[in-house]
Design a protein that fits this description.
- Among the domains are: about 200 residues, 7-stranded beta/alpha barrel (Alpha-Beta Barrel), CATH 3.20.110.20; about 60 residues, no CATH class.
- Helix content is about 30%, strand content about 30%.
- A hairpin with a 2-residue loop joins strand 7 and strand 8.
- Helix 2 crosses helix 3 and helix 16 packs antiparallel against helix 17.
- The longest helix is centred in the middle third of the chain and has 22 residues.
- About 45% of the residues are buried.
């Protein structure tokens, strides 16, 4: 009797909260709709489909026919619909109520949209932790799909994964399938005939192979639209081949396979994700070395090397919150808002706040790898916007048409002041919330201002990013070196300069896996790799030498003279509830290098905030604590994230006037003498921020731009505008110098919701 084997193709379609509408539309036109049309032409091909909540909501509003077409394929048994966390969160890092709530929301939405009871769920980024089966089971889901390396790390081989296993937590069981790398790395990159041959040669009678991966790799990833749906017609040829071989190869759904076949056995999996994610979770040098080692072992002909690869695990996903403090701050903000929302009374207001909270748990800015993640400002902005909106609702705050506080809820005329270890680093932060603004201060890290929320716009003005070394920066620089060497070799040989190789050594015209692409969206990016030695936040106290230049400060290649920027300050909090005033005093007795010796210097900054206001003041006092006179140059660094580095409606005003031409851009670099005030405006978002000083200063402005990798190649991304007002003065022994800074944020008309 001829053998019968099974193949399950599971497509995961996702666009994050905060992504541009044009990206949703492009993904639909190039990937989601063409794949759906191909399935309609091939009724003999069964596929499992997962669309995330943000994508479903966009479809309902912009492409409702897509959902009705999906429903028709579900009704004829061709499509199985998977559930998941509705807004595609990393479930392992959510409070338990949100784990269950997000899955149950998706199950309910699938029932309503498709009249279908989902049996399976997609696990965001395949981040698995051993406690998850309890919650998946409790939410009414019976299976999920994870990577083969999850299984291989406990000793299984590829041949052991052509079926499903049972796992459990506290007796609550879930079935788990493996999506194998051999198929993930072949589909759709390799010839159709090779895929069919692989399935025929590697599966025994009754076994199933699962390929679960991003739907965007079929059409949206670089070069794949023409390859999959254009002249090459890879998807059409693949589906035709599946139908032609249906006598021995049956496309099926995991749910159907479970109904007809028993599990292979029981298993317990360790914490894991797909292998690339564990690579990205490592520190940059180790990440690069790990990537190279994986590549070398994967190319090896030695069976022993291939066997050892199963134990290559990389890092732990949660350490993304160590590698990137910005992720940790966002995550802890989410947890704080969670507690506020769940303290609300049941009702419509709580449900609306809960929806904002769950939107703010969308996974994309909570990690970084090939696809940008935390480095994309608009994605971070979308996430913070949802969290701030949830917090506004929880606090009962609403605003009138002029963005002034209409109903301050429990914070009307009051401030909420906490001294608590929000970011769980062992040190307390000072958190001050009013009806119009929220500011978070971190005394243990230079007394920094690291979050400033303009509540009427649900906008975090300190949504900044630090320039860090990444493993792929080495990939970039080595590729540039190779290009230079190739060009020199061709020139010396009298060649044409066309070697038939791409910048990453691939053949011309070849469609490559996004993980293998080395391309640059602009030349010279290797010269923009600047790394910061401190986080790019606010109220950072610098002492610089008189010969420090704007350019050296921009490149973060200068000698800091003081020990204040990222060092601990003492803190005292005064909360005058009757007057609606909070005063936070931070002070550090440190040192500043002045010629042949370190001068003892004390910096005190007093932050004063009034209830219902969207401004605050910072009163600085710099004291020479030594017994000799010293000449000092003191500056206060402030980074502000207003998103648009080069846009007509985003610009600087300095002393009330707009600089000429490109010098007004928020991504401009320049120096202004005699500056008393600077304003940053983003007209599209309707946000305006003003900083003023009671002593004229030399003002440096410079962009914070990162060089990051994406599926389309290396790119430079504007993250924030850095401002450094600074003053030079001489202090006699025991003498003090004082300056008062005033910060104001305003929501103005002309924004996206006006």
């Amino acid at each position: 009797m001829p053998k019968k084997v099974y193949f399950a193709l599971a497509l995961h379609n996702h666009q994050p909260i905060g992504n541009f509408d044009s990206v949703f539309a492009e993904a639909y036109e190039k990937s989601y709709e063409p794949m759906l049309a191909a399935l309609e032409r091939h009724p003999g091909v069964r596929v499992t489909l997962h669309n995330t909540g943000p994508l479903i909501e966009w479809m309902r509003k912009n492409r409702p026919d897509y959902l009705s077409r999906v429903a028709a394929l579900v009704q004829r048994g061709q499509l199985e619909i998977m559930a998941g966390g509705y807004y595609e969160p990393i479930l392992a890092t959510l409070p338990d109520a949100d784990k269950l709530g997000q899955i149950r929301r998706m199950v309910s939405e699938v029932r309503e949209d498709f009249k279908y009871e989902p049996k399976g769920m997609w696990l965001a980024e395949r981040v698995w932790e051993p406690t998850l089966p309890r919650y998946i089971n409790e939410a009414g889901v019976s299976y999920t799909i994870v990577d083969d390396n999850h299984f291989k790390s406990v000793g299984l081989n590829d041949d052991d994964l052509y079926g499903y296993y049972v796992t459990e937590e506290q007796g609550r069981a879930v079935n788990i399938f493996a999506t194998g790398q051999p198929l993930r790395y072949r589909i759709p990159w390799r010839p159709v005939e090779e895929i069919i041959e692989f399935l025929h040669d590697n599966l025994r009678d009754g076994q199933i192979a699962v390929m679960g991966d991003d739907g965007e790799k079929f059409g949206l990833w670089p070069g794949t639209y023409e390859y999959c749906f254009g002249d090459n017609q890879w998807v059409e040829r693949f589906f035709t081949a599946l139908e032609q071989n249906s006598a021995w190869l049956e496309t099926t759904h995991p749910a159907q396979y479970m109904a007809e076949h028993p599990p292979i056995g029981r298993i317990y999996l360790p914490t894991a994700s797909y292998i690339e994610m564990t690579e990205w979770a490592l520190p940059p040098t180790l990440s690069f070395d790990f990537h190279q080692l994986l590549h070398q072992m994967g190319e090896s002909k030695d069976e022993r090397d291939l066997s050892i690869m199963r134990f290559m695990r990389g890092g732990f996903w949660r350490n993304m919150m160590v590698k990137y403090p910005e992720i940790n701050n966002m995550h802890k903000k989410m947890l704080k808002v969670h507690h506020k929302v769940y303290a609300m009374k049941e009702g419509a207001a709580r449900e609306a706040a809960l929806d904002h909270l769950w939107r703010g748990q969308c996974n994309c800015p909570y990690w970084h790898g090939l696809f940008g993640g935390i480095y994309y400002p608009h994605i971070r902005t979308g996430t913070f916007g949802e969290l701030i909106s949830a917090e506004n609702a929880a606090d009962g705050i609403s605003f009138d048409s002029n963005y002034t506080v209409k109903d301050g809820g429990k914070l009307a005329g009051k401030l909420e002041v906490e001294l608590t270890d929000l970011n769980t680093d062992g040190h307390n932060e000072a958190l001050i919330s009013g009806a119009a603004q929220t500011i978070y201060l971190q005394p243990s890290m230079g007394g920094a201002l690291y979050e400033w929320d303009l509540r009427p716009r649900s906008f975090n003005l300190l949504n900044t990013m630090t320039r860090r070394q990444e493993a792929y920066h080495r990939t970039l620089t080595e590729a540039v070196i190779r290009q230079g060497q190739q060009a020199e070799g061709q020139a010396s040989a009298g060649g044409t300069g066309r070697s038939g190789q791409g910048s990453d050594g691939g053949k011309e015209g070849e469609v490559k896996n996004a993980h293998d692409i080395v391309a640059m969206k602009e030349p010279g990016l290797e010269g923009k790799l600047f790394y910061d030695w401190h986080q790019r936040v606010g109220l950072l106290d610098h002492f610089i030498s008189a010969d420090t230049s704007l350019q050296s400060f921009y490149e973060s290649r200068y000698g800091e003279q003081g020990d204040f920027v990222n060092q601990p300050y003492g803190v005292q909090v005064e909360h005058h509830e009757g007057s609606g005033l909070a005063v936070i005093t931070m002070q550090r007795a440190g040192h500043v290098w002045d010629g042949p010796e370190f001068a003892p210097v004390t910096v005190q900054k007093v932050v004063s905030i009034h209830a219902d206001a969207s401004d605050f003041s910072v009163d600085y006092t710099v004291t020479n604590s030594g017994d000799k006179p010293h000449h000092l140059t003191f500056g206060v660094e402030q980074n502000l994230a207003l998103l648009s580095g080069h846009a007509p409606d985003s610009y600087y005003l300095i002393n009330g006037e707009r600089p000429y031409g490109a010098d007004a851009d928020l991504a401009s670099i320049g120096e202004s003498n005699g500056a008393r005030a600077v304003t940053l405006i983003n007209g599209w978002f309707g946000v305006q921020v003003s900083l003023a000083w009671d002593k004229p200063c030399t003002l440096w402005r410079l962009p914070i731009e990162t060089v990051q990798n994406s599926e389309a190649g290396f790119e430079r991304v504007y993250q924030a505008s850095c401002l450094l007002p600074h003053w030079s003065f001489t202090l006699q022994a025991g003498e003090s110098w004082r300056v008062i800074l005033h910060y104001r944020a305003e929501a103005v008309h002309g924004g996206i919701d006006d």
